[in-house]
Design goal:
- The chain contains 5 helices and no strands.
- The protein has 106 residues and is mainly alpha-helical.
- The protein has one domain.
- Helix 1 crosses helix 2.
- The longest helix is centred in the middle third of the chain and has 11 residues.
- About 11% of the residues have low confidence.
Length: 106
């Protein structure tokens, strides 16, 4: 299999470490951490309601979005906070970490 030229400068180990620490991932890091082709990640980042903030996503937000999108129960799949419903684009509905970042940008 040919290596992905888009991900040539990305360290897979570093991307996975950022994912485990729940640090924000850009598209290329997200692609490496999720073992998903970069072209698919770019499409995913444009999905309505995807928890993208300034071109970055937190892994835990992605997991929660994925559970909601496919109608899974977050409590049964490792999410302990019990939030439910569909996230809208208003800052008050983002997770706490995303809200802090948005507030710091003001």
């Amino acid at each position: 299999m040919k290596p992905d030229r888009q991900l040539a400068g990305i360290s897979f180990a570093m991307a996975d470490q950022r994912r485990r620490k729940n640090q924000p991932l850009n598209g290329k890091e997200f692609s490496a951490a999720s073992a998903t082709p970069y072209s698919a990640v770019r499409k995913l980042f444009r999905e309505p309601g995807f928890p993208l903030i300034n071109g970055r996503v937190y892994w835990s937000d992605f997991v929660l979005w994925r559970h909601r999108r496919f109608g899974l129960d977050p409590l049964r799949h490792g999410q302990a906070d019990g939030r439910s419903g569909v996230r809208t684009a208003t800052p008050g509905t983002f997770p706490p970490q995303a809200r802090r970042i948005l507030e710091d940008m003001r």
